[in-house]
Amino acid sequence: MSLDVLPGRFAYTPDHEAFRQTVRSFLQREGVPNVNEWEKNRLVPKSFWRKAGEIGMLCPTVPEQYGGLGLDFGYNAIVDEEMSYQGVPAGFSLQSDIVCDYLAHYGSEEQKQEWLPRLVSGETITAIAMTEPGTGSDLQAIRTSAKKDGNHYVVNGSKTYITNGQNADLVLVVAKTDPDAQPAWKGMSIILVESDREGFKRGRKLDKIGQDAADTSELFFEDVRVPITNCLGEEGKGFIYLMSQLPQERLSIAIGTHASAQRAFDDTVAFTKERKAFAGMVFDFQNTRFVLADLKAKLQVGWAHIDWALARHLKGELTNEEGAAAKLFHTELQWEVMDKCLQLHGGAGYMNEYPIARMWRAARVSRIYGGTNEIMKELIGRKL
After folding, report:
1. Does residue 109 sit in the same domain as residue 185?
2. pTM for this one?
3. Domains identified in the chain, total number
């Protein structure tokens, strides 16, 4: 089974589908055979990023003048789908779907020239540092500061749960440049911090329930001096920049989670048809077929919604509430699919040697990152 045989999809052109074949071939050759080792090491090597960059998998929307392919977000979506379906855990979506757009939309010409070609090639791996030990969804409560000192900012603070934290060469740090601003969001900025700056330290590679190879880290900033020119866009506009990119970020999460749910379903259909029970196969039980039929119907509806949301986003029409709804619906469905598919595996589903166990563990965080699903409901509810 593969994603390009799903009937009735309408978001992609033949060029998108040709790109899918390139991406899938690369992942099956360079990614899938190494996943177990990466999970054991709890890190994806930087060499894999550079190989992905060579075939155009990273940041495909970057304009050609900055070393990119100048393509639409549909190509990002193809990468997100295939990475999730193939179970390859590298944090490409953070770089391609989130960080890259911050730099492309709000960066100075100097910042674009310096960083975008490196993001495209995989030479530079990025992270965005928002969450702090005492602050999650309430970004206005962050305590990390960036104080001016001559022609520099001095950054102090700590961040946690940072994706790509161990590998990151460049960190986009959300910090308060005006701690007295009212409301607080008016004093927030995004500061670019290179990993070789004195005072920047990586903390623990955090031990998570799942997604072991997707490194998640603590980061510390102790009197880190960076030039004033390292501010992304205008000082005090950081919160606005973050909010403006949320529909794409949440659509990206929806796409990846739905693809992983499809993989869990496909694997479970195959497992139940091969697993003997009593005089037949697990698939022969009416309950098994009914559960799988219910999931198949929901997955079909989900793909129609993904294509609808993606089409709206490509036209610049996807709203913040629609992005939140996509993230809410598809992450909730992902968990339902994972849990029911694990149940149909029986005791085998609880064994880590079976892919469903890894997928089940990895799925739990989907309803938390990118804004918790409770926050998604609040955002949707405010516009009713």
Report:
1. no
2. 0.94
3. 3
Name the CA radius of gyration of the chain, rounded: 21
| Same-domain check for residues 134 and 119 | no
Same domain, 180 and 214: yes
Active site residues: 249
CA 119/CA 319 separation, integer angstroms: 27
Helix axes 355-363, 246-274, angle to 10 degrees: 150
Q: From first to last of the 384 residues of the chain, give the pLDDT tens digit.
A: 678 778 888 999 999 999 999 999 999 999 999 999 999 988 999 999 999 999 999 999 999 999 999 999 999 999 999 999 999 988 899 999 999 999 999 999 999 999 999 999 999 999 999 999 977 677 778 899 999 999 999 999 999 999 999 999 999 999 999 988 889 889 999 999 999 999 999 998 888 899 888 889 999 999 999 999 999 999 999 999 998 888 999 999 999 999 999 999 999 999 999 988 887 889 899 999 999 999 999 999 999 999 999 999 999 999 999 999 999 999 999 999 999 999 999 999 999 999 999 999 999 999 999 989 999 999 999 999
Range of the domain at 364: 245-381
**b/e per residue 26-46 (b: at least 16 CB within 10 A):** bbeeebeeebeebbeebbbee
